[in-house]
């Protein structure tokens, strides 16, 4: 998903939507965002809509206008189950710009010449000057003390209108329609009044290489700049995540592997005879006063520099050395036979994505070829790309099932992109059609159906198992569900997959997976301490339990139906879990919540992109002591503050 922002003096206009986490990593604030324009109703375009609207609400933006295809109304209902006030005008206009099929920026009024006004004796510094300024900026002559003064004497000439085009041509089937579009044709003529400053092409490389599209693009001439936004973008969007992971990798390279930069296309890019620029994260094009590219904000990724930065912090090197020594004892050979399950934490924060922690998602690799995804918050696909790089398609094909614990945005809004990307990966890998098994509350089917009916066909990619059908002694009255449950057990080599209702919102579930080899992984989802979860998870090999709030915040935990760290640990102890991983931390904590120094060595704290196997659990407690020491936490305070653009 790609962000394209046009900013006036005090406003932002957004064409296209992105996950909120990208805004945070790119240091882009949304306080002045008041217009969002969508080019089509596709998940790549609208996937960030729910998170963006919730963020605008939290930041108290008074009004934001959404414009797009007719299905936009149904899309908003699909996200929020709300009533939408429609506005069906063919174009949008305000004091700064007109948005039609081709965006037009209004002429910029000239600058009032204060020094010249003083020479002519005008009342500078007096309230009487305000209507004079307004008049001359509008090109009107004025009469002052019986003398006519021409507008051009007091004001610089206005800057002409600026035209830029945001064009999405998603595949070759649209090329003829683009090339023959009458509105676009008039901007290809040699007419200064209709010259285009910039065209943003949201266009795959296969379209750019098509001779029809290439000829059409080059017909705009050398004075038009072209910005390409597609799969060939190689810039890093989440620099802070790469930075922290590089430092953690220095402590333990296997538990904290270096993140990768995914490059989907290996082919040479299309070449053109006119100015064409490939998009990069935070690349800007200035339309006024001077037309130019601005690259001063581009990211520069240097892993070695980040390690040196950490080593310069007080006590960091000593802490790392101590950690390495404590981890140097190797396990007995008998303990190394089985390295599965492997758990990869893709999102360990709650509510909204932040620069350190993404929202809920945990990948459980059952074998080299089979995986289960536990929850799927916004940005999960991006996290998978950063973790697996060019192996992403293989990993997507490995995902046999997804468990969605409940219908809150931080747990399910990444699902559709995973389904679409998995289908694409199956095709690219030459795999047969293989619908994914989805275990979730039944209300999720309504959500998926709404999207299927109004945006893209999606239901053919999944086989739905209602979560309540996997409760102990449940009555599975739907024949298809029985077949799907049997398929889940067979595909994943499970002896048992069980759910239970937990103490959060209505229709919230936890789950337990028991493998034929004997291991048992229990996932709490969001919940207060829950007896049903304890009973279901008895003698778990691993409990992954939410710990949203720190100790001392029990009242808030009750109010928000979450658990504190000690409550989560206690659940694991009552369950007799061999190891307890805490996750789903409030984003108020920069890296780690306050944690008892007396905590058990059976307890670990999840961190985004942490990758642990059975033999890694015992190492986690010692890593916490060095890895998340105050010296490392101080890195956050040295980061560049967010931009306010």
Count of alpha/pi helices: 25
CATH architectural arrangement of the largest domain: 4-Layer Sandwich
Rg: 28 Å
CATH superfamily of the largest domain: Ribonuclease Z/Hydroxyacylglutathione hydrolase-like
**In what range is the share of β-strand residues?**
15-25%
Instruction: Look up the CATH topology of the largest domain.
Output: Metallo-beta-lactamase, Chain A
How far is it from the N-terminal to the C-terminal residue, by CA?
20 Å
Derived from helix and strand composition plus strand pairing, the structural class reads alpha/beta
Order of strands across the biggest sheet?
5-6-7-10-11-12-13
Beta strand count: 28
Quaternary structure state of the chains depicted: single chain
Number of domains: 3
Contiguous runs where pLDDT drops below 50 for at least 5 residues: 331-336, 635-645
Outline, from the CA principal axes?
elongated
> What is the name of the CATH class of the largest domain?
Alpha Beta
Mean pLDDT: 84
Strand count, sense and closure of the main sheet?
7 strands, mixed
Helix content: 25-40%
């Amino acid at each position: 998903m790609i962000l394209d922002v046009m900013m006036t003096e005090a406003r932002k206009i957004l064409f296209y939507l992105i996950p909120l986490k990208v805004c945070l990593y790119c240091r882009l604030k949304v306080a002045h965002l008041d217009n969002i324009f969508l080019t089509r109703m596709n998940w790549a375009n609208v996937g960030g809509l729910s998170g963006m609207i919730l963020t605008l609400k939290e930041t108290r933006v008074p009004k934001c206008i959404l414009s797009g295809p007719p299905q936009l109304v149904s899309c908003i209902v699909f996200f929020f189950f709300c009533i939408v006030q429609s506005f069906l005008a063919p174009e949008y206009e305000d004091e700064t710009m007109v948005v039609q099929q081709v965006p037009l920026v209004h002429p910029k009024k000239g600058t009032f010449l204060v020094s010249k006004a003083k020479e002519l004796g005008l009342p500078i510094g007096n309230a009487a000057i305000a209507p004079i300024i307004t008049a001359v900026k509008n090109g009107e002559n004025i009469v002052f003390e019986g003398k006519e003064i021409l507008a051009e004497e007091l004001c610089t000439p206005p800057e002409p209108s600026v035209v830029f085009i945001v064009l999405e041509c998603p595949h070759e089937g649209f090329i003829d329609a683009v090339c023959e579009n009458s509105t676009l044709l008039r901007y290809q003529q040699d007419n200064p009044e209709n010259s285009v400053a910039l065209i943003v092409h949201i266009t795959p490389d296969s379209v750019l290489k098509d001779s029809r599209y290439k000829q059409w693009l080059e017909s705009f001439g050398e004075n038009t700049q072209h910005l390409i936004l597609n799969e060939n973008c190689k810039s890093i969007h989440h620099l802070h995540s790469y930075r922290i992971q590089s430092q953690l990798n220095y402590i333990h390279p296997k538990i904290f592997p270096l993140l990768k930069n995914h490059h989907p296309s290996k082919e040479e890019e299309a070449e053109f005879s006119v100015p064409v620029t490939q998009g990069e994260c935070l690349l800007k094009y200035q339309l006024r006063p001077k037309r130019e590219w601005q690259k001063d904000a581009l990211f520069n990724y240097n892993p070695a520099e980040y390690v040196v930065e950490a080593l310069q912090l007080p006590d960091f090197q000593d802490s790392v050395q101590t950690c390495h020594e404590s981890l140097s004892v190797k396990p007995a050979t008998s303990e190394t036979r089985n390295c599965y399950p492997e758990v990869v934490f893709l999102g360990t924060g709650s509510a909204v994505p932040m620069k350190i922690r993404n929202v809920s998602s945990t990948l459980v690799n059952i074998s080299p070829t089979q995986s289960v995804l536990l929850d799927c918050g916004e940005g999960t696909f991006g996290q998978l790309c950063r973790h697996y790089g060019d192996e992403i398609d293989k990993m997507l094909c490995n995902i046999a099932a997804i468990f969605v614990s409940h219908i809150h945005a931080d747990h399910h809004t990444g699902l559709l992109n995973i389904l679409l990307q998995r289908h694409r990966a199956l095709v690219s890998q030459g795999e047969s059609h293989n619908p994914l098994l989805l275990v979730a509350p039944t209300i999720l089917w309504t959500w998926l159906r709404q999207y299927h009916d109004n945006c893209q066909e999606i239901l053919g990619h999944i086989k739905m198992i209602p979560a309540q059908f996997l409760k102990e002694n449940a009555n599975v009255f739907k024949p298809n569900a029985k077949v799907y449950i049997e398929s889940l057990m067979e595909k994943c080599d499970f002896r048992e997959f069980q759910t239970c209702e937990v103490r959060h919102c209505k229709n919230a579930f936890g789950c337990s997976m028991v493998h034929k080899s004997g291991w048992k992984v229990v996932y709490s989802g969001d919940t207060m301490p829950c007896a049903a979860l304890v009973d279901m998870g008895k003698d778990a090999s691993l409990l992954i339990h939410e710990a949203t709030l720190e100790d001392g915040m029990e009242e808030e935990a009750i109010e928000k139906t979450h658990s504190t760290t000690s409550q989560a640990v206690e659940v694991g102890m009552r369950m007799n879990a061999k190891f307890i991983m805490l996750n789903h931390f409030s984003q108020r904590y920069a890296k780690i919540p306050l944690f008892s120094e007396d905590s058990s060595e059976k307890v670990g704290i999840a961190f985004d992109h942490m990758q642990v196997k059975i033999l890694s659990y015992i190492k986690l407690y010692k890593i916490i002591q060095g890895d998340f020491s105050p010296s490392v936490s101080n890195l956050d305070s040295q980061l560049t503050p967010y931009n306010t653009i």
